[in-house]
Amino acid sequence: MNGLIRRLLLAVGVWLGVATLTFGLMYLVPADPAQTMAGAQADPATVASIRAQLGLDDPMLVQYGRYLGGILHGDFGHSFVTGDAVLPTILSRLPATLLLAFGAMVVYLLLGVSFGIIGGLKPGSAADRVGILIAVGGVSVPTFWLGLVLLYLFAYQTPLLPLGGYGTLWHLILPALTLGIGGAAYYARLLRASLADVMRSDYIRTARAKGLGEAQVVARHALRNAALPVVTLFGLDFAHLLAGAVLTESIFAWPGIGSNAMQAIATLDVPMIMGTVLFAATAIVVVNLLIDLAYGLLDPRLRGA
What we know:
Structural class: mainly alpha
Strand content: under 5%
């Protein structure tokens, strides 16, 4: 119980630190919010009036307190460009990003975990060599380049799949592969190394000496321990994908959080940028907390830590 409380307090502290840094974005972005709302041709009196309405003339501590109070009440502010509330806008994009995240994770698991297990159990085999080749290629290829190549080959040159957009399973395939291939490469390399190391452990030899079959040894002992670093990577990757895969969503015109962030950056929409960063950070903090709890389930030695 003490460990859980400590993790919760740490998560709250990290979130508060990120919220503070996010508030600092308002002063780091090279744009005057009042001038952005008023327009480039607005006179100084109009800009000053908008600054007063937004509370930008108040002391920084007052603005910071108002910012935190608004966040705790679910108010992330309003877009300077469209006037829409920031949080509902982000949440409206969340289903598309969730769908893309799950699609990419399926590719992670199908390719990365499969080749990782084969390589860890049978290092040096033909399948292991293929897995290493895919892993090296996946790590080396930039995501945006891979997305453009897949678009050219399977949507333009051979029109098997849509060029972009959202709405059907066919629209999901190319962006999911674009995100998933690179991630699968890391999964394959990590799980291969972890599993190969576990298979040389004393407790694996002990389990075999007790007469357990190879399938039971792998499933009940080896994979459970080898999966610990993979669980960490899986959680962090999923949090990153929830935050929005900016380049992939932009390449495929996928209406998720990432493409919305790109539009906000292009127009210097400060509240939307701040809201997206804070939403992403919150997702990462929550998923990290869940990872800590999952560690306790996978490894009983960590439950009291």
